[in-house]
Amino acid sequence: MKNILKILFLAGMMLHTACSPSARVSRILSRHPELTVTDTLIFRDMIAIPSIEADTVIRFGALKEPVFLRHERLEVELQYNKETLFVKGKCKADTIYRTHRIPVEKIKLIKPNRIDALIARIPWLVMGLIAVSVVIGLMIYRKNRAN
Question: DSSP letters of 36-68?
C-alpha cells in the first residue's frame, strides 16, 4: 500500500512539473523560434551636472560700474558702492537625459483565422461522422440479423 502511494505521489509530482506554464512556453519557443520577436526597451536616465566654480582678480578702482563674470552656466555680478561690495551669483540649472536601448525578445501573438480553424477541424468531423455511421450500421445489422 505504501509503495502504491509513493508511486502515485511521484507520478503526480512529475505531471505537475511537466505541465507548468513556463515549461510549456519554453518548450514551444524552443521548437518554434519564429514565434519570438526582438523588441527594444527604451530606458531614459537623468544625469545631474556638478557645480561650476570660477574665480578672477579685479581691482577695486575698476568697480565703479557693475562687473559681470560669465563661465558656462555660472553668472556672477560684482558691484561696489562706497565701502560695500555686492556679489550676486547664479548657476543655471541643467539636466542631461541619456536614452538606453535594451533589446529583448517577446512572444508574437498570432490570432488564428476562423476559416483556417474550421478547415483544420474538417478531418475530425469527417472521422466522427464515419464512426457514428459505422456504429449505427452495426446496430441495424445486429437488429436485422436477430430477426
Answer: EEEEEEEEEEEEEPPP--------GGGTTS-EE
The dihedral region occupied by 20, where left means phi > 0, alpha psi between -120 and 50, and beta the remainder, is beta
- Identify the CA nearest to 105 among candidates 22, 41, 27: 41
What's the CA gap between 100 and 41, in Å, rounded?
A: 8
Q: What single-letter amino acid sits at 65?
A: E
Asked if 85 and 104 count as a contact pair (C-beta separation under 8 A), the reply is no
For the ranges 27-41, 90-104, 106-120, the lowest mean pLDDT is seen at: 106-120
What pTM did the predictor assign? 0.33
Q: Which residue has the cell 517577446?
A: 106
**Is the separation of the CB atoms in 41 and 101 below 8 Å?**
yes
The tens digit of pLDDT for each residue in 65-107 reads 777 778 777 788 888 777 777 888 888 777 888 888 888 888 8
Bridge partners, residue 106, by sequence: 37
Question: Do 114 and 68 form a contact (C-beta atoms < 8 A)?
Answer: no
